[in-house]
Design a protein that fits this description.
- With 433 residues, the protein is of the alpha+beta class.
- The protein is built from 13 helices and 17 strands.
- The chain folds into two domains: 96 residues, Beta Barrel (OB fold (Dihydrolipoamide Acetyltransferase, E2P)), CATH 2.40.50.140; 302 residues, 2-Layer Sandwich (BirA Bifunctional Protein, domain 2), CATH 3.30.930.
- 29% of the residues lie in helices and 25% in strands.
- The strands form three sheets. An eight-stranded mixed β-sheet has the order 7-11-12-17-16-15-14-13, with helices on both faces.
- A hairpin with a 5-residue loop joins strand 9 and strand 10.
- The longest helix has 23 residues.
- The radius of gyration is 26 Å and the shape is elongated.
- The mean pLDDT is 96.
- It binds 4-amino-1,4-dioxobutan-2-aminium adenosine-5'-monophosphate (4AD) and magnesium ion (MG).
Length: 433
């Protein structure tokens, strides 16, 4: 009797007397009835309290509860077609553990984004955020499961690094004791390459830092990236792996997060369509396409956010843009065997205007080519001695990629802005809360 259960399991307890422990999310009253929306972190449920001769005092006390009171509700579960979850709880008793002394700042009326971001510590309790965080959780779990199933070994890469992984323009720098400058990691890739030559296929998953000075809907200064590195694997093999992975992730979310997608009002047509093979266009073709769309872009330029959006809306599932100009990409990418100015790489663009969610490439495996690229890019040879070593012993064709968790989650959820896809967003304008 009155077993403590979680709201997510409510359907298993129809007709039973149960206990819920949670918080008052919303309250509506009509004279003799309180409709209490209760949340317990696993879901939301309507609890109905009817005034009777026996519960008069309690009924009055509950009437005074503010939003985000802490409560223990006892009652019985019944099926109700009108309730959003299909069930509701007929309340027999409410224990009031805590009633806030001030009104809750986030009310039902709509608030501006700035207000909500300032109250992110509380905003997380809202229904919409609940569904987004659940999808984010499943995206991460699906990728991990997929990689483990394929035999990848998890290798945690360092956050404090001495060698620059991506670009000098977005580095967070700090003084590192007597050893000069250190940087917050922009990628785990270089360390993952070392691990790949030790253990074969490997992956890492961690926070990544970029001092992005631009204010866009797809850039964070701290984001989470899953990176994989594969040996005896060229760029083609890398692209095939990426599309299989994304295809799997989308299917998992469609299966396990149906209710979350529905609650977010996500039109899932494109997600349903996201099955291998994805589209592929070369960088050259992408430039032609953009020029046709009147973009002021020429061969050799990097493809920016607006351009990615323009490309991705042309496709009804992800598209991989491959083989960029060398000068638009990082120093470690393998040159094209027949075109010296082009590197073997790919960016996967999510459809519906979302743009890049994965960046990947084949890595330079020849010592001299890498040394030249390090020099050409003005990087310190000393800092990269260890990375060059990997080309001295046991060098092999290898490739890998990095997938941004927030960008992927934002696309799957259909979010307008990446800031809702991470619990506490860090951007150029935001470090609070
Ligand atoms: O394309 P990027 O910069 O690739 C790398 O860092 C490679 N070293 C990965 C590798 O090959 N192991 O970043 C990879 C992904 C992007 O496609 C994007 O999804 C995400 O990381 N990303 C960001 N997400 C949010 N905010 C930012 N500022 C991001 N920068 C990159
Ligand atoms: Mg990229």
């Amino acid at each position: 009797m009155y077993e403590w259960i979680k709201i997510k399991d409510i359907s298993e307890h129809e007709g039973e007397k149960i206990t819920l422990k949670g918080w008052l999310y919303n309250k509506r009253s009509s004279g003799k009835i309180h409709f209490l929306q209760v949340r317990d972190g696993t879901g939301f449920i309507q609890c109905v309290m009817v005034k009777s001769n026996d519960n008069g005092n309690k009924f009055e006390e509950v009437d005074k509860l503010r939003q985000e009171s802490t409560v223990i509700v006892k009652g019985s579960v019944r099926k109700d077609k009108r309730a959003p979850s299909g069930y509701e709880v007929e309340v027999e008793d409410v224990d009031i553990l805590f009633n806030p002394s001030e009104p809750y700042p986030i009310s039902k009326k709509s608030h501006g984004v700035d207000f909500l971001m300032k109250h992110r510590h509380l905003w997380l309790r809202s229904r919409r955020q609940f569904h987004i965080m659940r999808i984010r959780n499943e995206v991460i779990k699906a990728i991990r499961d997929y990689l483990y199933d394929k035999g990848f070994l998890l290798i945690d890469s360092p956050i404090l690094t001495g060698s620059i992984g991506e670009s000098t323009s977005t580095l967070f720098q700090l003084d590192y004791f007597d050893l000069g400058k250190a940087y917050l990691s922009q990628t785990g890739q270089l360390y993952l390459e070392a691990a790949a030559l030790a253990y074969g296929n490997v992956f890492c998953f961690g926070p990544t830092f970029r001092a992005e000075k631009s204010k866009t809907r797809r850039h964070l200064t701290e984001f989470w990236m899953i990176e994989a590195e594969m040996v005896f694997c060229d760029s083609e093999c890398n692209m095939r792996f990426q599309e299989e992975l994304i295809s799997y992730v989308i299917q998992r979310i469609m299966e396990r997060n149906t209710a979350d997608l529905e609650a977010l009002g996500r039109d899932t047509t494109v997600l349903e369509n996201t099955k291998v093979p994805f589209y592929r266009i070369s960088y050259d073709e992408a430039i032609t396409l953009l020029q046709k769309k009147s973009f002021d872009i020429k061969w050799g330029d990097d493809i920016g956010g607006d351009e990615e959006t323009a490309i991705s809306i042309e496709f009804d599932k992800p598209v991989m843009v491959y083989n960029y100009p060398k000068k638009a990409k990082a120093f470690y990418m393998q040159p094209h065997p027949e075109r010296e100015d082009v590197v073997l790489c790919d960016d996967m663009l999510a459809p519906e205007g979302y743009g890049e969610i994965i960046g990947g490439s084949q890595r330079i495996d020849d010592f001299d080519t890498l040394l030249k690229s390090i020099r050409d890019n003005g990087l310190s040879e000393d800092a990269y001695q260890w990375y060059l070593d990997l080309r001295k012993w046991g060098s092999v064709i290898h490739s890998g990629f990095g997938l941004g968790i927030e960008r992927t989650t934002a696309w799957i959820c259909g979010l307008e802005h990446i800031r809702e896809a991470i619990p506490f967003a860090r951007t150029i304008y935001r470090i609070y809360p």
